[in-house]
Design a protein that fits this description.
The protein is an alpha/beta fold. It has one domain: Vaccinia Virus protein VP39 (Rossmann fold). It is built from eight helices and eight strands; from the N terminus they run αβαβαβαβαβααββαβ. Strands 3-2-1-4-5-8-6-7 form an eight-stranded mixed sheet, sandwiched between helices. The longest helix has 11 residues. The chain is globular and about 45 Å long.
C-alpha cells in the first residue's frame, strides 16, 4: 500500500511547531496534519472541521476533533487555550477572514496560516493570455467547483496584517514538490514568484489583534 506524500506546508508546520505544544488545527480535513504532528512532535493536537466526513475520518484515526464552522464557532475556545492555532489552505474559503485571523490569535499564542498566492506569475499569465480563471497546483479546481471565495495575494495579506497590527514572525514560499523557502513577505518579486505562502503571526501584546 503506497503512502501519500506529505504536503509541503505540512512539512514546514512540522518544523515550526515545537514538540509538546498545544495545537488547534482549524479546517483539519481528514486529520493528516494532526496525525503527523502527534506522531512526529508529540503535540497535544486538536482539530475543528466543518465536514461530517472529515470529522468521521479523524475519529477513525483516533484524533481529537470537533465539528464546527470557523466563521462561527471559534468563540467556543478559551483565550490562550493553545500555543499554536493553524489555518492551512483554508483562509481563502472562510466568509470572514479578518475575524477568523483575530480569533486564531486570541486562542493561540501564534497563528500559522497558509494560502495560495493569486499574484503568482502563472496565475497572471493565464489571465493575460487565456482570459480565464487559472488552474495551478495551488488552485487546482475550476471556478465553478472551488470553495475559494476570498482569494488574495501576498501583498494583500501583508497589508491586512498591518491593518490588524499583527507581527509577521516568519514567511515561507511554497511550491508543489519543493521544500518551503524563507522569504521577505513584503518583496514584490516574491509576490510574483511564490505559488503559495505560509505565515507565522503573533498579535501586538499591547493592542492585540484588531478585528474591526
Amino acid at each position: 500500500m503506497s503512502v501519500a506524500p506529505v504536503r509541503e506546508d505540512f512539512r514546514e508546520i512540522l518544523r515550526l511547531v515545537p514538540p509538546g505544544s498545544r495545537v488547534l488545527d482549524v479546517g483539519c480535513g481528514e486529520g493528516a496534519l494532526l496525525e503527523l504532528l502527534g506522531r512526529e512532535n508529540q503535540v497535544d493536537a486538536r482539530g475543528m472541521e466543518i465536514s461530517p466526513h472529515g470529522v468521521a475520518a479523524c475519529l477513525a484515526r483516533g484524533l481529537a476533533v470537533m465539528q464546527g464552522d470557523a466563521d462561527r464557532d471559534l468563540g467556543e475556545f478559551a483565550t490562550g487555550a493553545f500555543d499554536y492555532a493553524i489555518l492551512s489552505q483554508t483562509l481563502q474559503a472562510v466568509l470572514r477572514p479578518r475575524w477568523v485571523l483575530g480569533e486564531l490569535l486570541r486562542i493561540g499564542g501564534r497563528a500559522i496560516v497558509s494560502f495560495p498566492n493569486f499574484a503568482h506569475w502563472r496565475v497572471r499569465l493565464d489571465l493575460l493570455l487565456q482570459g480565464r480563471m487559472p488552474l495551478t497546483g495551488a488552485l487546482p479546481d475550476p471556478w465553478w467547483e472551488t470553495s475559494n471565495i476570498h482569494l488574495c495575494t501576498l501583498r494583500d495579506f501583508v497589508e491586512l496584517c498591518a491593518a490588524m497590527r499583527l507581527t509577521i514572525q516568519a514567511c515561507s514560499a511554497l511550491a508543489q514538490g519543493k521544500p518551503a523557502r524563507a522569504i521577505d513577505a513584503s518583496s514584490g518579486l516574491e509576490n510574483l514568484r511564490a505559488e503559495a505562502a505560509l505565515f507565522v503571526l503573533t498579535a501586538n501584546p499591547s493592542t492585540g489583534a484588531d478585528q474591526t
